[in-house]
Write a structure and sequence with these properties.
199 residues, 7 strands, 7 helices, seven-stranded mixed sheet, alpha/beta, GART_AS, Rossmann fold
Length: 199
């Protein structure tokens, strides 16, 4: 069965782009169901428009509050018949309605080896700065199932990246980012092939 994937992205959506590229290349038996962003000017929505993928901008201001936005996101994903939801730099907490509608079906990628350097407030460059400040010898990327706690759900896969002498947060970020797209694709391939059960 071809996986139908809904994407949530706030900015560039680099993970989403890697997944769509794998679909286009025939490396992943999946189809983009919809791209949702909370940011109407996001590059992710521009990408979706250029590719003629279904897309929507949903945020609390437009919907009339966080609860309404959560309900709209859940309904939009259901109407798009998404089997899985893939977060790609989505900077909003997933609401309870969406979590319930897609229980164990929402995936995120985090730029560290969880459970280290995760949790509320740990995103983007803050993660890499914390890794450098801690003197850690390795970092990486983690694909995990999303639950109602930040960076907490079941870990599905990790890619390890050494922290090199002289690394800055930016050089580390670049090397970790190179692993994120391929890792996301690998996890989705295993799900599509029935090799990874999310239940």
């Amino acid at each position: 069965m071809t996986l139908r994937i809904g994407f949530l992205a706030s900015y560039n959506g680099s993970g989403m782009r890697a997944v769509v590229s794998a679909i286009d290349a025939g490396d992943l038996d999946a189809a983009p169901a919809i791209v949702i962003s909370n940011n109407r000017d996001s590059q992710a929505l521009l990408f979706a428009r250029d590719r003629r993928l279904p897309h929507a901008c949903i945020n609390a201001r437009r919907a009339g509050g966080e609860d309404a936005a959560d309900a709209d996101i859940a309904q939009t994903l259901l109407e798009a018949k998404a089997d899985l939801v893939v977060l790609s730099g989505y900077m909003r907490r997933i609401g309870p309605r969406t979590l319930t509608a897609f229980s164990n079906r929402i995936l995120n990628i985090h730029p560290s080896l969880l459970p280290q350097f995760g949790g509320q407030g740990m995103y983007g460059m803050r993660v890499h700065e914390a890794v450098i400040a801690a003197g850690a010898q390795e970092s990486g990327a983690t694909v995990h199932v999303v639950d109602d706690e930040y960076d907490h759900g079941r870990i599905l896969a990790q890619a390890r990246v050494p922290v090199l002498p002289g690394d800055t947060a930016e050089t580390l970020r670049q090397r970790v980012a190179e692993q994120e797209g391929p890792l996301y694709v690998q996890v989705l391939q295993r799900i599509a092939r029935g090799q990874l059960n999310l239940d």
